[in-house]
Amino acid sequence: MELLAAEERPLGLAEIAQRMGSSKSGIHGMLATLVDAGYVEHSAGGIYCLGLKAWEVGRAVPGLRLVRLASPVMDDLVAEVKEGAILGILDGFDVVYVHLVESAQAVRVHAAVGDRIPAHCTSTGLALLATLDDAHLDRVLPPRLPAVTPQTIVDRRSLRDEIRRIRARGFAINRGGWRLDVGGLAVRINDSRGSIIAGLCIAAPLYRMTKPWIDRSAPLLTRAAARIAAALGKAAPTRSAAA
Fold first, then answer.
1. What is the pLDDT of residues 91-117, one digit of tens each?
2. What is the three-class DSSP state of 172?
3. Residues 6 or more apart from 109 whose CB is under 8 A from it?
4. Are residues 53 and 67 in the same domain?
5. pTM for this one?
6. Cα dist from 175 to 3, 74, 121, whole Å
7. In a domain? residue 94
8. Is the pLDDT of residue 227 over 50?
9. Within 2-155, where are the H helices?
10. CATH number of the structural domain spanning residue 230
11. How many angstroms separate the most distant Cα atoms in the chain?
12. For the residues of 64-98, what is the DSSP string, one character each?
């Protein structure tokens, strides 16, 4: 299903089997089950694509509620800071982008919904790693931190030092850890119970990330995250409704 979702065109049985490194007979049985359940459609010519059931299940993902409530707040944030905003969630040691709002500037940061990036490379990932207790952090930290650019944190002790700074400062700063010419600020977003559910980032070309810009933008970012948290609290079902 992930393979089909990543493609912009239907795929045939042979191509699916080749991409997955499996036999056509084994993949055919799996696809037949998914077709019967409605998660995959089998079209004329022997090609396969995602079915309506996959869309229906996707709509029920809790992150969609977060995106719906965060979207207008992110629009306001982008209008204030004149830079792009990204909403991301932590999945293991990766950050997955679930919503973004681009700035109108000619030179701006480009990203895409669904991008999956190692958490130590981005401000969003660093902000979310800083919310984990030491035991949880030990569980998700990979044996080696991949170096994406010369500015990527690759030493585990350096990463822990940066996490301590983020906790003290209240927001994460990334300068060129994912793309050499890109930086960002990020903070965590809490839900109505105080649990950390996402990170909110302002992404900007590195040359515009001056200290005055950071001093001006960080409070606006923190306020936007608080607005999203408040919206989540208001939209949370009451005890009687949940019952």
1. 889 999 989 999 888 888 888 888 889
2. strand
3. 83, 84, 102, 103, 182, 184, 203, 204, 205
4. no
5. 0.74
6. 33, 22, 9
7. yes
8. yes
9. 2-6, 13-20, 24-37, 52-59, 62-81, 123-129, 134-140
10. 3.30.450.40
11. 61
12. HHHHHHHHHHHHHHHHHHSSEEEEEEEETTEEEEE
Helices 13-20, 24-37: crossing angle, 10 deg rounding: 110
| Residue corresponding to tokens 């089997």 | 17
Task: Classify residue 26 by its DSSP letter.
Answer: H
Q: How many residues does the chain have?
A: 243
Which domain, by its residues, includes 196? 62-235
Q: Which tens digits make up the pLDDT trace of 163-200?
A: 999 999 999 999 999 999 999 999 999 876 667 789 99
| Sequence-separated (6 or more) residues with CB below 8 Å from residue 123 | 172, 173, 174, 183, 184, 185, 186, 199, 201, 203
Q: What is the DSSP letter of 141?
A: -
* DSSP 3-state percent helix, strand, coil across the chain (nearest 5): 50, 20, 30
User: What is the distance between the alpha carbons of residues 183 and 193, in angstroms, rounded to a whole number?
Assistant: 31
DSSP 115: -
Please report which helix (H) or strand (E) contains residue 229, including its range. Answer: helix 211-235
> How is residue 128 written in tokens?
């979310």
